[in-house]
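User: Structure tokens for this complex, please. No commentary.
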Amino acid sequence: MTTEAPPKKEEPKKEEESFLSLFVHNLWSANTVTVTFLSILLALVIGAVLIVVSDSEVLATFSYFTARPSDALTASWDLISRAYADLFKGAIFDPAAVSAWFNGTGDWQTALNPLSETLTYAAPLVFTGLSVALAFRGGLFNIGGQGQAVIGCVTAGVAGFAIGLPAGLHLVVALAAGLIGGALWGFVPGLLKARTGAHEVITTIMLNYTATLFLGWLILQNGVQDPDRTDAISKTIDSTAGLPALPAPLRVHFGIVLAVLVTAGVAWLVNRSSFGFELRAVGVNPPAAKTAGMSVGRTYIMLMVVAGGLAGLGGATQVLGTADRLTDQVAGNIGFDGLLVALLGRNKPWGTLFAAILYGGLRAGGNLMQVDVGISLELVTVLQALIVIFIAAPALVKAIFQLRDARTARLGASMAKGW
Amino acid sequence: MVTDTGGIDDKSFNASAWAGLQAAKTQASGVDPKYVASTAEADYEPNLRGFVTQKCNFILSVGGLMGDATKNVAAQNSSQQFGIVDSAIEGATNVYPMQFATQEAAFLAGYLAAGYSKSGKVATFGGRKIPPVTIFMDGFADGVAQYNKAKGKDVKILGWDKAAQNGSFAEDFASPAKGKALASTFVAQGADVIMPVAGGTGLGAAEVAKGSSGKVSIIWVDQDGCKAAAQDCDVFLTTVVKNITDAVEKAVVAGATGQPLTATPGYLGTLENNGVSLAPYNQFDSKVDQTLKDEVEKLKADIVAGTIKVESPSAPA
Amino acid sequence: MRRFQLSGKSSQRSRSQEIPLRLELRGITKRFGDLVANDHIDITVEPGEVHALLGENGAGKSTLMNQLYGLLQPDEGEILVDGEPKVFRSPRDAIAAGIGMVHQHFMLVPVFTVAENIALGAEEVRGGPLGWLDRRRNKRDVLETSKRYGLPVDPDALVENLPVGAQQRVEIVKALTRDVDLLILDEPTAVLTPQETDELLAVMRSLADTGKSIVFITHKLREVKAIADRITVIRRGRTVGVATPDTSEDELAALMVGRDVSLEVTKTPADPGREVLKVSGLIVDDDRGVRAVDNVDLVVRSGEVLGIAGVQGNGQTELVEAIMGLRPPRAGAITLEEKSLAGRTTKQVLRAGVGYVPEDRSLDGVVKDFTVAENLVLDLYDRAPFGNGFKLNPKAIDESARERVTQFDIRTSSPQSTVGTLSGGNQQKVVVAREMSRPLKLLVASQPTRGVDVGSIEFIHNQIIHERDVGTAVLVVSSELDEVVGLADRIAVMYRGRILAVVSPDMPREEIGLLMAGVVTPEAEDTE
Amino acid sequence: MSRVSTATVDDLTEATAPDRFWNRQRRLGAALVIIGLIAAVIFGSLAESATARFTISEDAEGAALSINGQFGAILFGIVTVAAGGALLAGVAKRWQTLLLCLGIVTFVFSFLCWQVAGKFLPLVDTLSGSLELALPLILGALAGVLCERSGVVNVAIEGQFLMGAFGAALVGTLATSVWAGLISAVVGGVIIASLLAVLAIRFLVDQVVVGIVLNLLALGITGFLYERLMQPDALKYNSPPRLPEWRIPGLADIPVIGPVLFETNLLVWLALILVVVIHLGLTRTRWGLRTRAVGEHPTAADTVGIRVRGLRYMNVLLGGVVAGAGGAYFTLVSTGAFNKNMTAGAGFIALAALIFGRWTPFGALGAALFFGFAQKLANYLSAVGSPVPNQFLNMLPYLATIIAVAGLVGRVRAPAADGVPYVKS
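Assistant:
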């Protein structure tokens, strides 16, 4: 009686197929995992091309390519494989260091250092990534993660050196300060969005600059600036406020554990809480949410407060975990990187966690790559950007690899709605 | 070598240090220089450790900001030789400090500028408010004051107040646009000699001077401007040279050839050992009065002899 | 009108023997994934003919016409114009072939003037490659066409300021200035008063008389019978019959739906009780700050259905939104059982016992990316048993969803399917199920069956009457006069933000039609 | 028949205007009164009672407009209050914008009187500095206008700047020709634009996401190549010739305006001409009508035979041309060498100028000039030693943007289909 599609009867039948055949079938279809994997692969390939074309020595071998192609190919291959091997060794483990540890010539710290570095870089990114991802789920594009993280750094850092409290409590207070600072910085664009409709992309970008300038001013003020220094650097946080860490030289600290816990919390918030229900409804269809009695404006404000708090916590992790004091670069780029992490993690909490670890790995490995073969960290930026482009345009990946259509996964993080 | 967040191309101390390493490469065959640029303060330690793992013989940190990180890493790896530019680390025997009494040379530049200025106003600005920058500005300010005292004049200095340790900064070592804006502001205020202590940002000031058809001149810093930024040589009155390049080169060559590098006293560049100096006047040679030149020479001798002391809160202890 | 029809038909019959057919569609097939929207459809339209394409919502009429107009490409089949096969890759090709279309959703740029809209794509320009617009000539062309076909439009008015009837005239003028030989009109009468509808039918006939062919898409039997030379009935993507205007309405309806349907809403007389909703002196502005509801008073009692009739865009939307707390009123009072609703949030209004079926289902009614189960608790997610304001209770949500799906006959593979995969009728049933599954004092239903298939219409109408019969006050807003007449116990006619009269559903259609056009007759005033 | 014609006459009657008391005009008026009071009281009391000189020449010498700083701060503050009061009292619509502008301008003057009291502000230097700082913003915002009026959100202006700047430096140096540099800047902008176009129009990726990521890609690629190529050998790869400054005799002698507008480089003229050309193009030509239609209601444009995607591709690429030329400013006008991340967020400010300017060329010009002025002023005041820390002065443009977006210019309406990819159903 209607034109609706007849209920699909095939689905239960398919479940009876052997898991293996289903697996093989799905492997080359455009599902999330395959596309993610291929996106990374594509990015690495393009990165390799960049490495080769920008290396004058290798490029020189191409000038007589027709005469002796093997030279050019070997030279390229050597360079690329060494660079990417470094990426791996710097991010996960160096087989040499591990075997040295086992036969007693090395120590466990050296063997575990790459992983430690990866997790150290990943920890703040988890928070900023979650911040962006959560806002995204609620239909807001929080480019302000950077500013919120900066303010989080400031409040956590100031709480870390300005007040004296017993260990443990001090840490909690400092973390809370970071959270609240970031939340305040998120509250402003949320309020403006809800009240005046001011687009959060613009307001948060402007607040990023404002936050950085504020930090630059603050660390030169009496009481904040390190009295023994004339340059822009603050006092060191008290040891009572520092996140517990593994013994040096390993840098990995409690922040990563906190990150996992917070990821679980955000996952619960999105999927199982009333607020999560609201924010998801507001995210995909604000008019329907409004019609069903939800307050879209209030949700936007709450959302930005929570997102800001998460980013602020990321900033706090940075200060209390690795940096120990405020400088004008203290937040690095964690806010902007969080943006990419969220996109890569498809705005899902656990996806964001894994994306952050991947980025942490790229970062840690990139350092070794720079040290060893002198390929600058900018390559890592290029890789990160490319991965996200491919992930965001699954149709492109599909076209390049001739994937078949996925049966289930709806691809395309199409959040397009403009201003 | 590990740079601070200014990066290898800061047209300032990172660049100079890197040039030193490059020069060392030509001097001693065993030297294979590598560098890594830090993007955030948190990177200093892992970057240094990266070189430790690479078993580099001489690991150089550039900039006082890296002091703490270098201290930590050096303490954990006492068998490796470290070096640091613009800082000294107490108690670390394996860190070779290279410091510079830059204020001495800047003092001469200040005197020269005050004497050369026709408008009676000179200016300086910095890239960021950090000791390796403000030390220039302190010396410059004192030099101007010396001139005023000696001649009973009232040459004003814009952009730096030594007593208050406060002045104009571009907050950027790589933005000629900001340098240009600052410099043109000073010119509008009447300054006709400007000393930008801001790496690449200072190129903007040279730009302004070029557009002034000879009215405004620039005192460059770090490396002789007529070599570092040859295209602007016609506006460089002189340069306050801080010879990081040579210092680094010597240290590395020494390290590579097995000579010991002692952490104390380390290296202190002064007017006396030519670690800091005033570069030749180059194209301004004919424009500067001989008497002024002589006075500057005399001052230099006085400083070397210790009869004049130039002080700065940023000066190495 | 009859005269037009007869003469039109006879002249065209005689000509069709000599000259080739104007348009022929052969075996047109279009699939969207698993859904076959058009299944080997054949249609022939002859010159000077008004050819009606009849079918219920979702039957595939618009899809077919979009292929003819080049907006979609058929998977199979061919289009012949004057006997020659043509491929329409874009509307550009269709326009070149002499085909014009007036779309169901108007294709006008709201911030452009009428003249700009009409000129768009066929601009008169000077200055060669520079393409300098010749505004004067564009305007003159508009006025000429407007005059020639008796369709008054103001070339300088901004389209967004025009009422829908006028916008439709602009659409027709736009097509006519392009010298079309075949004009497709997709559901053109949906937004018109009965009088405007008659007017439009007359225009269509006169166009046909000049030799132009007209394809008229509709699901309204009355109009088909009044104007068409031939009728093609489409059901579920297939041609199920070709009929003439002589075919009876019942036969046509049976063809269209595939079974016998009762077009009447069966209901017992109302038993109105206490006043539930009282609106007095209500003034509401629209988004642009223009007064949309102008001093409206109305009362809805328990156990009755008050229908609001009126052409779309006469303030009904704003009236309903003001009642629901979605739009702050400028002045006036709204009370629910003596308690004021002024200043209440939508949530508070809903919690006070008001059910709301919004007019734009896909925008306001459902969240398409949510599951059926989630949509069914869209306004109750934070209340026991579905949640406690802090966390959700997925088990309770799922259980209740299973019940509702059965109770309201929602055709879905599972309550966990996303609503976007459901047909329009079933989506609407989700909305109705959600709003009617809690105790209500008042039900506000706006366009409750827009874009819904006949089967679902019947079901929804029955649910509304059922709600009335258990003593709920019901306010139904619809621009389909038939629906209002069928459902309502009293009808308030709205025109330009005012309630012109409250009349009985037994009043003749023509009279109500006049009121909808803003003409107050003495009889109507008496009933007030 | 007659009834329908009656309805037609009704259609044409004016819609009733709203008469709520706290309408936008009054809210703005109240805001002006408040900031005017702040100016008169706070600026007035802080200001030195010394002469503030606004000199006509480039420096301290010569003719000047002088006013006692304290008096000026109070006077202009009072004028701001008066303008706000007039708005509050309710004036005719055509005076509203004028009064609003007057209020803001006098507020700025009040601030200046406080800051400049006892010192001076060279007008020519300030204006030409503002214009120069505004230059890339104008071009960037115009690129945004081109893209967004056709319905493609362009957050990638920053990336286009960077690629433009990089291309100009690299090719300009290799070819030792400033014109080759300019052309490659355009090519650089177009490369990013074409990626934006393909990903947004063909692959339907969220346009804001694409923009952000393309910025990063441009940053990465230019930074990477800079480190590998330019840094080791700056003379060979990174010392492009500069765009010459041209002086138009006669016109350049007009006081104040002359040196600002007629003794400058080609890019400034290009930008100003483009503002006019794009404005006329959008409002008066077939291309403009179609562009606007595609940006507002692409389906409607499609149904009248306009190639929606084709037009969008074209406009995005044109935007790339303009933004690329804007990128050339950084290397060929401003500095003479490329540097990593040298655009330092200018692309985002251009984006703000676009929105601030309500997606119109002249609005964008005004907003860009405002940002340029704010930046120049911040630079100037920090150099002459303002009591306000320069970090706060530097915040001015950003805070102004927030205020503007949040209410001063009213709820800005983007083209209706901006950011919505066109998919045929």
